[in-house]
């Protein structure tokens, strides 16, 4: 889950100044990391808050409803620090009351005074090496759990079972550090999770994979979200739904049809896929009561396009 800014250059209904000192809208969306599907979104005014729990709960509820029932048994909800609100984490925790469902969260957390004091009291032996997504050790990065170093009264305000994990990393040259970070030269980032088991390194690497949502946002903007065409808010809401449909069609095509001879298209972003696939100078020919799509043999991706059509045609029809 993440939000983004869509800039407008004219007066439009509900457009407003944003926290980035631009003007436009502040939509929030939820994507399925496994399939890259655009599950749900809400178009909001530009001055909508980044951490408005009601908006997060609404769009997450819609997203979970989009997931087929037999795949809702184990869910992981990831967000940046904007999702670290009491109301949202309480709502996610309540979802575990649904029979046969386990909902976990991994949400960014601000480095506040209590966390800084916990970091200062955390012994060196509590820190372990951080890992890259491929499992290799991440040079100059370490991870530790701070849950046991925080005051019980502070933890009591949050849902039961919440764990606080922090990563520290040597900053890149030229990076700006806070006054606290300048003391020992480490840059700190924290997140919270209700996952009870698993190595800290795995949980931290799993949380950092949330950064893939930035790719989903970029793809959505390349598919139409970058410009909202109407002065009317309702029409722009409909446009957002069309963007979601287009993003899902791209995700399904890449996942289901871009295999074998079409694998060259599997990793294409929307702009490249649009050029290689949709911009092919094909023509529709009719003969013998049949219609055929003729693709120039000189088109570099002609074989891949044919493979995509053949794969889609071979998908069994739903019962």
Automatic annotation (TrEMBL):
<dbReference type="InterPro" id="IPR025668">
    <property type="entry name" value="Tnp_DDE_dom"/>
</dbReference>
<dbReference type="Pfam" id="PF13701">
    <property type="entry name" value="DDE_Tnp_1_4"/>
</dbReference>
<dbReference type="InterPro" id="IPR047960">
    <property type="entry name" value="Transpos_IS1380"/>
</dbReference>
<protein>
    <submittedName>
        <fullName>IS1380 family transposase</fullName>
    </submittedName>
</protein>
<feature type="domain" description="Transposase DDE">
    <location>
        <begin position="1"/>
        <end position="314"/>
    </location>
</feature>
């Amino acid at each position: 889950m993440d939000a983004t800014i869509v800039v407008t250059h004219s007066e439009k209904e509900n457009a407003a100044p944003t926290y980035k000192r631009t003007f436009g809208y502040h939509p929030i969306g939820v994507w399925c990391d496994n399939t890259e599907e655009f599950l749900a979104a809400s178009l909001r005014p530009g001055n909508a808050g980044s951490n408005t729990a009601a908006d997060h709960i609404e769009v997450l509820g819609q997203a979970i409803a989009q997931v087929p029932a037999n795949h809702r048994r184990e869910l992981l909800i990831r967000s940046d620090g904007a999702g670290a609100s009491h109301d949202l984490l309480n709502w996610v925790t309540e979802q575990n009351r649904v029979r046969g469902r386990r909902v976990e969260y991994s949400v960014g957390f601000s480095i506040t005074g209590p966390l800084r004091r916990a970091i200062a009291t955390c012994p060196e032996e509590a820190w372990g090496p951080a890992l890259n997504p491929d499992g290799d050790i991440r040079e100059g990065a370490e991870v530790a759990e701070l849950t046991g170093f925080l005051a019980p009264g502070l933890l009591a305000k949050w849902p039961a079972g919440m764990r606080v994990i922090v990563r520290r990393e040597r900053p890149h040259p030229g990076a700006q550090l806070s006054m606290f970070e300048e003391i020992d030269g480490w840059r700190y980032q924290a997140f919270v999770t209700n996952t009870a088991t698993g190595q800290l390194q795995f949980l931290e690497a799993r949380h950092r994979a949330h950064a893939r949502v930035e790719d989903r946002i970029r793809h959505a903007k390349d598919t139409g979200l970058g410009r909202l065409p109407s002065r009317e808010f309702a029409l722009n809401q409909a446009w957002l739904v069309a963007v979601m449909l287009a993003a899902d069609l791209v995700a399904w095509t890449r996942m289901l049809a871009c295999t074998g001879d079409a694998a060259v298209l599997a990793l294409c972003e929307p702009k490249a896929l649009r050029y290689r696939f949709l911009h092919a100078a094909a023509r529709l020919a009719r003969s013998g009561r049949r219609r055929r799509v003729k693709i120039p043999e000189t088109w570099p991706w002609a074989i891949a396009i044919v493979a995509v059509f053949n794969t889609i045609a071979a998908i069994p029809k739903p019962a």
